[in-house]
Structure formats: structure tokens, C-alpha cells
Design brief:
Distance between the termini: 15 Å
Number of domains: 1
Order of helices and strands: EHEHHEEEEEEEH
Shape: globular
CATH topology: Jelly Rolls
Strand content: 25-35%
Mean pLDDT: 82
Number of helices: 4
Radius of gyration: 16 Å
Number of strands: 9
CATH class: Mainly Beta
CATH architecture: Sandwich
Largest sheet: 6 strands, antiparallel
Structural class: alpha+beta
Strand order of the largest sheet: 1-7-4-9-3-2
């Protein structure tokens, strides 16, 4: 089963600049490359997106896609293999439409980091919200190091590995549409 697909498009770097401008306006400390012990998520809601990312909105609107939110992910100082395995859960997305796919944009410091997908080894293991996993319970099935946009499965077990000395920041763009057509067709 495919877990990700490249989705490079002209102008995506301009959209990254829009998101960085949002973070700069918010005095976001990680833009200086500092490394903290904690990972983080910042949600750009409709108001933030309309104000700070009009080019991003228009690009996807021209492609018949409506952004529901943008999740900015920071991965700081994780283990290799990563132990922060998770599935993007519906409760986090309650106020947004939940789709099994997202488009991820690299914002900064993605070199030397990767996104890995896993399968649960023990079929009797019950997946629960905020469940913790160990290396003995799961098996890595694929990984990708990306520096261009990807369509990714967010409903499958995955984790980010960043053993660099900088905080990795990515944007996960969520849509009201499922993206399955974009994901399954070449």
C-alpha cells in the first residue's frame, strides 16, 4: 500500500514563504533554527490562512481544493528509529474536516530527517488514542526524506525522525476534499 506520493508544483516555494511570514509575525522562536526538547503543532485556522496565505488558497482553489486548516509541525531532537509513532486522530481535527490525506510542505531544516510509516506486528494489538508503541510492537514499512511537497497518508501509523541539531518544520495542509483522486492517479 502506498503511503506517500510526490506532489511538486510550480510556486510551492512562494507558499512556504507565506507560511514563514505567518510564523515570523507570531515571533515564532524556532525559525532561528533553535532546537528544543519538545515537538509542537501550531494550527493555522481559516482566519490565519486568509490573512497570511492568499497565494496558497488561490492555487488550491484553482485546482478545485478547499483548505480546511494548516497544521505546522515541529520535530525536534527525536530518536532513530523514532518512538513518537502516531496516527493523526479525529479528535484533534474535530473542528475541521477529517481526510486520510494531506499535502505536506517542507518549511525548513528537512535535510537529514525522514517520515516513516509502520505496521503493527501483533494483530491483537488494539490501537487507542494517544497509544504508545515500542520498536518490538511495530515494523517500519517505508520511509521518505523529502524536500518537495508530498501527498501523505495521515490515517496510517507514522513518525518523524530528526536527529539533526535543528528543529524541522513542515506544514500539513488539510482539505475538505479527500485527495484520494490525486493520491491514486499518476
Amino acid at each position: 500500500m502506498r503511503m506517500y506520493k510526490e506532489y511538486p508544483y510550480n510556486g510551492w516555494q512562494d507558499h512556504v514563504a507565506e507560511i514563514k511570514n505567518f510564523l515570523e509575525e507570531k515571533n515564532f522562536k524556532y525559525l532561528d533554527g533553535s532546537l528544543e526538547e519538545e515537538n509542537f503543532i501550531i494550527v493555522m485556522d481559516h482566519e490565519d490562512i486568509n490573512k497570511h496565505a492568499p497565494g496558497l488558497i488561490n492555487f488550491f482553489k484553482d485546482n478545485n481544493l478547499s483548505i480546511s486548516c494548516i497544521m505546522l509541525h515541529g520535530s525536534c531532537n527525536t530518536s532513530d528509529p523514532p518512538l513518537n509513532l502516531h496516527i493523526d486522530q479525529i479528535p484533534l481535527m474535530e473542528k475541521f474536516y477529517y481526510s486520510p490525506y494531506a499535502i505536506n510542505l517542507p518549511i525548513q531544516n528537512v535535510e537529514g530527517t525522514y517520515l516513516a510509516y509502520y505496521e503493527i506486528i501483533d494483530p491483537s494489538f488494539e490501537l487507542k488514542e494517544d497509544a504508545a508503541f515500542t520498536e518490538n510492537e511495530v515494523k517500519e514499512i517505508t520511509r521518505v526524506n523529502y524536500n518537495e511537497p508530498l501527498i501523505v497518508r495521515i490515517d496510517k501509523l507514522h513518525a518523524v525522525c530528526n536527529v539533526s541539531d535543528k528543529c524541522r518544520i513542515t506544514a500539513s495542509i488539510r482539505f475538505t476534499e479527500s485527495l484520494e483522486e490525486y493520491f491514486t492517479h499518476a
